[in-house]
Every structure is written in structure tokens, then in C-alpha cells.
Design brief:
Chain lengths: 268, 270
């Protein structure tokens, strides 16, 4: 990794404070962050075929509750398919997917998916988008979630006036509002510029520390995987080619991170 | 030339405002003059002042308001029935694939029949009563609203629909919050097409068989060579069409305030 890229990675923490730095400031003093009940995830010999083509070829995984796992691989490697199985949008051809020790039978409110694009409803204001599922007290909860992602006071804006990074923050708030125990992220920062992406990394790390949910991040950016995750999986031709425990980000020296990146890159 | 550059800017602004009206006003003045001097026979084209006079007298004796009210009532009933049906069919076929398979090709075939061509049949079925005219208007407005509702529902971003499902929306909430709002721009476009067809159909229907309404008023006036009344009727039709169009534009701006291309329209309007 070049010196320039290294510098970029550290930029947002020193240059700008787009979101409140401390948890106390983040709550704005009126919303108490409920800590989610993190959910464990188990995949048992999961196979998925589309029209005879095998996209996932026997995946076995144990992901403890609250772990942050990054899944790296080339496009077409089955990453998004894996995500759709976990969230319940698709069923496996063979094998079992267990969230919280129960087979996935459909969509559930404590497993949330952050898409590659923000997918905001342009005809709903920002708060209306965050509280899309409505329910009692949805507006207060939506505004608190917006506060949490550093978008306090933007609840009445139309999505059209927001920047790309802000839209993805709204999408993150929409996922957080139902207090998920497992958050799936399908390359959510791929379309953002490098600086905004760094900001989002900082934001995601802070929110994850506060809420304590487990997360699975799909990415093709190895540096991003190492910067965010505790564990990195490399998915190649429908199989797990590498399963690497790298420890919590921030608790390991930079040199080690660079070493991890090389090892992962070799397998991708 | 030098004096023009330093002319009063307020004066210039007034002149710029008035410039587009110069040509129509000149035409009106020449027209009035030609009619007054006798170059134009009143049987060919009555003077503008005669039309204004006709407007005034028919307004005072109540016949103009009566005919306008009758025509507007027919237009509204036809729009309600035909538009309602078109929306319901478009919604049904857009939402349910089996309904589309069953109904769409039939509707496409019917769409290609010029609805004014069935006037003889309509007169045979309904006589020359109100039903005939409302039926024709309904048929006329049905198809543009059907097509645009159908297309609008089908072209809603599938990613948004998937997002709605993942975030726990039930079928009713999905339609209310994602699919219908997404189809609305297309539906409103269909409404604007429908309004144009609505007036056109009404003009034809009323001139063929009616005992009231603006079409009747102009045909009646033609019998007695009252060209001023004929022209008045044409102008009233034009104004009604413009009014309906303005109303839809207003509706679009209110309903589509989220759309950036309407933001600017709103801001410049206020």
C-alpha cells in the first residue's frame, strides 16, 4: 500500500469531525442507545445453485454473536448470494442457515441488510425513509437514529438534496432503527469517494462498538476488510478459500495490518 | 443608439414584458378595423368587439354559464368513470401477472379502435341522451390512464421494492409507500393526456347530438348564422382546456414536490 493511501486512511480522524466523536454526544442527550442482542450465525454445508450452476459449493461457517466478519472475493464468487440466503431473501438448494440457532425461514426485523446503493424512497423525507416500517413512536426513533449517524436536523430534507455519503448514512440509520442483532453490508461504500469512505469506516466502527451487533461485510477492497473486521473470509468459486482471524481493528499495529492484506490478496 | 443603452431600466423591463403581446394585439386591432370598415363580412368572421358583446349578453341571460356547467359536468362524469376504470385496470394488470395475460391484449386491441368512430353505434345504443356523451368521454379517457398506470407500476425501481420487503413492509404498505408513489408521475402524465382527449371527445359528441352544452350552443348558433356565438364557444373550449391543464400541472407540483425537477418549478412559482 502506498504512503498516500496510508495517509488517506488516517485522514478523517484528524481532519474533520462529521459525526460526534463520543457516544454521549452521539445520543444528543435524549435517546438512549439500546444495545442489541447480538445473534450468532451458523452455515451448515450450504449449497446454492442457479439453473444448474453452482454458486455456493458447501459453505460451513460458525460466526459467534457480535463478531465482525468481512467476506472478500471477486465478483461472481457468490458473496451476494450468501448475503441473500442469510437475510432470508433466498433459500439454499441444500444445507442449513441458522440465525440465533433457528433456521432462516424469512425476513426478520433483527437482521438488517445495507444495500450497495442507498435505496431511499425519493418521495419520502429523510425521517420517513429511516422509519419506513412505521409502528408506534417511529418518528422519535428515526430522529434518534439519524442523530446517531451524524445527520441530526436533516430529518425533514428530501433525499435528493443529500450527498452520496449522506444518503448511505440515512440507509445505515434505517438499518439501525430496528436495533438489529446482525447487520449485513453488501459493499455499501463501493460507490463513495475515498474520503467519504474513510468517514463511513470511522462511523461504522463507532456505531458497532456502541450497539454491539454482529456484522458481515461484503467487499472487494481488502484494505477495507482489514480496517473494519475482526475476521476475514475469502470466497473463491463458491468455497471458503481462507478464514483468517485478525483481531479487533485498532488493537493491532499497522505493520500487522499490511501483513494481513498481503496474505489475503494472495488468496483472492 | 447611445440613448437606448442608457434608457430607464424599469421602462425597458415593461417593454420586454409587453413585447410578446404586440403581435396578437396588432392582429386584434387590424381584425377589428377590417370588420368595422366592412372588408370582413360578419358571416365570415365577426369583429372581436361583437364576440365580447356576445359573451356579455349570454353571460347576463344565463345561457353561457348554463351551457358551460352542463359541458363541465359531462366532462367530469366521463373522466371519473373512464379514468377510474382505466386506473383500476392498469393497477390490476400492473400488480398481477395473470390479470395482464388475461386482459392486456384485449385492451390493446380495443385501444386501437378510434373511439369517435363508434359514435353511430353509441347513438343507436343510448340515443342522444346524456349517457351517450358520458360513455364516449369515458372510453376516450380510459386508455391513456390505463396505459400510464400500468406502465408506471411496472417501471417502479425493483431495488426499492426489494428494500421495502427486506425492511418489513407488508403488501398494503408496499403499495401505499413504494409502488403507487413510484407510479404517480406516470399516472399524472396519463391524466394530462386524458384531459386533452376528454375535451376533444366532448366537442365532437356535443356538436353531433345534444340539446345543451357548449357544443350545442355553437351548432345552434351556426344554424342562425351567429358567428360571434360560434367563435365564443371555441374560445370557451380553449379556456376550459387550458384550465384543466393548469389544474393538473398544479397537482403535479404538489404531488411530486420530492422530485428535484419540480423543486425549481416550485421555487420559481413562490
Amino acid at each position: 500500500m502506498s504512503a498516500f493511501a496510508q495517509a488517506l486512511r488516517r485522514l478523517p480522524l484528524t481532519v474533520s469531525r462529521p459525526f460526534p466523536a463520543s457516544p454521549a454526544a452521539a445520543t444528543g442527550g435524549h435517546a438512549v442507545i439500546e444495545r442489541a442482542r447480538p445473534l450468532p450465525l451458523v452455515l451448515d454445508g450450504v449449497v446454492k445453485e442457479f439453473a444448474g450452476r453452482r454458486v455456493l459449493d458447501g459453505i460451513d461457517l460458525r460466526i459467534p454473536a457480535g463478531q465482525f466478519v468481512a467476506v472478500v472475493g471477486r465478483s461472481g464468487g457468490g458473496k451476494s448470494t450468501l448475503m441473500r440466503l442469510i437475510v432470508g431473501l433466498d433459500r439454499p438448494t441444500a444445507g442449513r442457515v441458522l440465525v440465533d440457532s433457528r433456521p432462516v425461514s424469512g425476513l426478520r426485523p433483527d437482521v438488517r441488510l445495507l444495500f450497495q446503493d442507498p435505496r431511499l424512497l425519493p418521495w419520502q423525507r429523510v425521517a420517513g425513509n429511516v422509519g419506513i416500517a412505521r409502528g408506534p413512536g417511529w418518528r422519535e426513533r428515526a430522529l434518534a437514529a439519524l442523530d446517531d449517524v451524524g445527520l441530526a436536523g436533516r430529518g425533514d430534507d428530501w433525499p435528493a438534496v443529500l450527498s452520496g455519503g449522506q444518503r448511505q448514512r440515512v440507509a445505515l440509520a434505517r438499518a439501525l432503527v430496528s436495533n438489529p442483532g446482525l447487520l449485513l453490508l453488501d459493499e455499501p461504500f463501493g460507490a463513495l469517494d475515498a474520503l467519504t469512505r474513510q468517514e463511513m469506516h470511522g462511523l461504522l466502527r463507532r456505531i458497532r462498538d456502541e450497539h454491539g451487533f454482529g456484522a458481515i461485510l461484503i467487499t472487494h477492497d481488502v484494505a477495507e476488510a482489514v480496517a473494519l473486521a475482526d475476521r476475514v473470509l475469502v470466497l473463491r468459486e463458491g468455497r471458503v478459500a481462507l478464514d483468517l482471524d485478525i483481531g479487533r481493528p485498532g488493537e493491532r499495529p499497522d505493520a500487522l495490518a499490511a501483513d494481513f492484506e498481503t496474505r489475503i490478496l494472495k488468496e483472492v | 443608439m447611445a440613448s437606448r443603452g442608457t434608457a430607464n431600466p424599469a421602462l425597458r423591463r415593461v417593454a420586454e414584458r409587453l413585447a410578446p403581446w404586440l403581435l396578437p394585439l396588432t392582429v386584434l386591432a387590424v381584425w377589428e378595423l377590417a370588420a368595422g370598415v366592412g372588408w370582413l363580412s360578419a358571416r365570415v368572421l365577426p369583429a372581436p368587439s361583437d364576440i365580447a358583446l356576445a359573451f356579455w349578453t349570454t353571460l347576463l341571460d344565463g345561457s353561457l354559464p348554463h351551457h358551460v356547467a352542463v359541458s363541465a359536468g359531462r366532462a367530469a362524469q366521463g373522466l371519473l368513470i373512464g379514468g377510474g376504470l382505466g386506473f383500476a385496470l392498469g393497477f390490476l394488470n400492473g400488480a398481477l401477472k395473470p390479470a395482464e395475460t388475461l386482459l392486456d391484449s384485449t385492451l390493446q386491441m380495443l385501444r386501437n379502435v378510434p373511439h369517435l368512430a363508434i359514435i353511430p353505434m353509441v347513438i343507436l345504443w343510448f340515443g342522444i341522451g346524456e349517457e351517450a356523451k358520458i360513455f364516449l368521454v369515458s372510453i376516450g379517457v380510459l386508455f391513456p390512464i390505463y396505459l400510464n398506470t400500468f406502465h408506471g407500476i411496472r417501471s417502479v425501481d425493483r431495488g426499492l421494492v426489494e428494500m421495502g420487503r427486506v425492511y418489513g413492509l407488508g403488501t398494503a404498505a408496499l403499495y401505499a409507500r413504494v409502488i403507487l408513489p413510484g407510479a404517480l408521475p406516470s399516472i399524472l402524465l396519463g391524466l394530462r393526456y386524458a384531459l386533452g382527449i376528454m375535451w376533444l371527445t366532448l366537442i365532437v359528441a356535443e356538436t353531433i347530438s345534444a340539446s345543451s352544452g357548449i357544443g350545442y350552443m355553437t351548432m345552434n348558433a351556426r344554424e342562425f348564422l351567429q358567428t360571434d356565438l360560434v367563435l365564443l364557444g371555441i374560445i370557451v373550449y380553449a379556456l376550459l382546456g387550458k384550465l384543466a391543464d393548469t389544474a393538473t400541472r398544479w397537482l403535479e407540483r404538489r404531488a411530486l414536490a420530492w422530485n428535484p425537477s419540480f423543486h425549481t418549478a416550485l421555487e420559481s412559482a413562490t
